[in-house]
Amino acid sequence: MEAAQLAQQCPLIASDNSANRWSVQRKSLAPVSVWHVSAQPFANLYDSDRILAQDYVTRAAGTQLLVNALVEWNIAFADPLCTDAPRELKDERLKAITIEGGDSTNITGD
After folding, report:
1. Which of 30, 39, 57, 108 has the most CB atoms at less than 10 Å from its CB?
2. 10 found inside a domain
3. Is 49 within the bounds of a domain?
4. Collapsing DSSP states into helix, strand and coil, what is residue 8?
């Protein structure tokens, strides 16, 4: 973890061969080959400059060593699929996951 701050200053190579810098607001995604198999068909939904180059896997002898480090350092998302445990589940957030036409008024996520 001591290397995280230094690593966040290094440019990253995207799958379209462009270079980009890490920011909290625009983290990259790991190379598609390391995503969960059910997420891989949806790779085209993301801009190619948001997905890291496959070189992050192939240059590490086919391992996920570099990708795992970037994820651990909060530089990249490991996969577009994720789980979240929000402190509160209400209002617009609750409405977004309610069945269409369902009423989420006065429902709490306790």
Report:
1. 30
2. yes
3. yes
4. coil
Domain assignment of residue 70, yes or no: yes
- Are 74 and 37 within 8 A, CB to CB? no
Assigned domain for 89 exists: no
The two structure tokens encoding residue 96? 């977004």
Please list, in sequence order, all residues whose beta carbon lies within 8 angstroms of the beta carbon of residue 16, skipping any fewer than 6 positions away: 48, 49
Confidence of residue 5 (pLDDT cuts 50, 70, 90): confident
Q: For residue 74, what are the domain limits? A: 4-81
* d(C-alpha 49, C-alpha 61), whole Å: 23
pLDDT digits (tens, 9 = 90+) for 16-70: 999 999 888 889 999 999 999 999 999 999 999 999 999 999 887 888 899 999 9
Q: What is the pTM of this model?
A: 0.72
